[in-house]
From TrEMBL:
Record: residues binding ATP: R285
Enzyme Commission number(s) of this protein: 2.7.10.1
UniProt membrane topology term: Single-pass membrane protein
Listed SUPFAM superfamilies: Protein kinase-like (PK-like)
Protein name: receptor protein-tyrosine kinase
Enzyme category, top tier: transferase
Naturally occurring in which organism (per UniProt): Saccoglossus kowalevskii
Biological process per Gene Ontology, one example term: cell surface receptor protein tyrosine kinase signaling pathway
Residues involved in Mg(2+) binding: N286, D299
Subcellular location: Membrane
All residue ranges annotated as the Protein kinase domain in the record: 143-419
Length: 423
């Protein structure tokens, strides 16, 4: 059970152990007591006390061994990596919001069987995806490409406009709408063009204020499909956060603003869960933001190409967002609603660090072992204890021990209100 409503206490118990090359270890007993023995005359009384002391010492030693074995069988002690970037969390965190009868940390537990309904029965083909998009298909003549906002090896995002027309009983009206336009470059392969279409379909036909589905598509040119989304003034959330960190562009950005962004992402993810959709790639790079700090979740189309540093191929011919993935997704490629909760914890960490890279000092190929051993990211500077407690609960080893998005939303809204009172 994860103490999501309590402050994280681990940071207050840090002591340095010089015998472990500077590694920091959480310890409840930081005082070493040494007793000096002075030679004295041996009497019958002293012999008696010595014997009693030896017996007590043996009993104490046995008790310590038994306690050590018991503790090791339950969970490892809390630790932090030697550079201070990652905290070792318990394998069985307390979570008052857990509704799953999950009595084991076995990643193959019955929680997976309960979640099978979230997986599609079959993978659609590219032609089937195109058929699905026919109701929002428009002509190329309606689209005007503007400046390039982002560009990768085979992907590109434009600022642009689309002209739409509506008819009433008397006349026809045209309207020019500002949009983002996702497409591919001349270097893109057929597989990459198909991937753009498939991934863009993930949020198609969804309607929620914190979700940004595609508005229109243009598939007239098979070599350059155009995917249109509603324009958001500040664009990609990750870029917005990083720009705010290195410039004075967003001096007014407060903790309350960041929590508000987290609330909106939580609302969007709660809605996706109700639609039986697992995002699989929740991160600030897959969110956009407007001038009023309204945040919307997008699909991950082109994300691998536009943010290559966030994805790694672990020898399975698939680039994955390794440092955002839940342990079950990383090891077994299992994607559940609770896997998205883990990724939300990382996304919240991104918000509080203004777009820093999670686990920056950890080799992606070592992430699985790192997480299995209980290591997690440390509390960011200037991050309230309450928010870090939320992150820590999202990173529970067992999927069933993580909070739901409904509970996360309630907690973040309460905290947002509290921040308003004290400002």
């Amino acid at each position: 059970m994860c103490p999501i409503d309590e402050k994280y206490k681990g940071r207050e118990q840090l002591v340095t152990d010089t015998t472990t090359k500077g590694e920091i270890i959480l310890s409840n007993s930081s005082v070493a007591i040494s007793n000096q023995l002075h030679p004295r005359a041996v009497t019958s009384t002293s012999v008696f006390y010595i014997a009693v002391g030896v017996v007590c010492g043996v009993i104490f030693l046995i008790a310590m061994i038994v306690a050590f074995v018991h503790v090791q069988s339950m969970k490892p002690s809390d630790r932090v990596s030697e550079n201070g970037s990652s905290v070792h969390l318990p394998h069985h965190p307390v979570n008052p919001y857990n509704k799953v009868d999950n009595k084991t940390n076995n990643l193959n537990g019955r929680v997976y069987n309960d979640m099978n309904r979230f997986y599609p029965a079959k993978e659609l083909t590219t032609d089937e995806f195109k058929t699905k998009l026919k109701n929002i298909a428009i002509e190329r003549s309606q689209i005007t490409l503007g400046d390039i906002l982002q560009e990768g090896t085979f992907g590109r995002i434009y600022h642009g406009y689309v002209v739409t027309s509506t008819k009433d009983s008397e006349s026809q009206h045209e309207e020019e709408i500002e949009v983002f336009i996702k497409t591919v470059t001349d270097q893109a392969s057929e597989e990459q063009r198909s991937l753009l279409i498939k991934e863009s379909c993930m949020l198609h036909e969804l309607n929620h204020r914190s979700i940004l589905p595609i508005m229109y598509v243009c598939l007239e040119d098979e070599k350059q499909p155009l995917i249109l989304l509603a324009h958001m003034q500040y664009g990609n959330l990750k870029h917005f956060l990083k720009n705010g960190r290195i410039s004075d562009a967003h001096q007014g950005l407060s903790t309350r603003d960041l929590v508000y962004m987290g609330i909106q992402i939580t609302r969007g993810m709660q809605y996706l869960g109700k639609q039986k959709i697992v995002h699989r790639d929740l991160a600030t790079r897959n969110c956009v933001i407007d001038e009023d700090y309204n945040v919307k979740i997008t699909d991950n189309a082109l994300a691998r190409d536009l943010f290559p540093q966030d994805y790694t191929c672990l020898g399975d011919n698939e680039n994955r967002p390794v440092k955002w993935l839940a342990i079950e997704s990383l090891i077994e490629k299992k994607y559940l609603p609770t896997s998205d909760v883990w990724s939300f914890g990382v996304t919240l960490w991104e918000l509080m660090t203004l777009g820093q890279t999670p686990y920056a000092d950890v080799d992606p190929f070592e992430m699985a072992a790192y997480l299995k051993n209980g290591y997690r990211m440390a509390q960011p500077a200037n991050c309230p204890d309450e928010l870090f407690s939320v992150m820590a609960c999202c990173w529970a080893l067992s999927p069933g021990d993580r909070p739901t998005f409904a509970h996360l939303l309630s907690i973040l809204m309460d905290f947002h209100r509290a921040l308003g009172i004290y400002i």
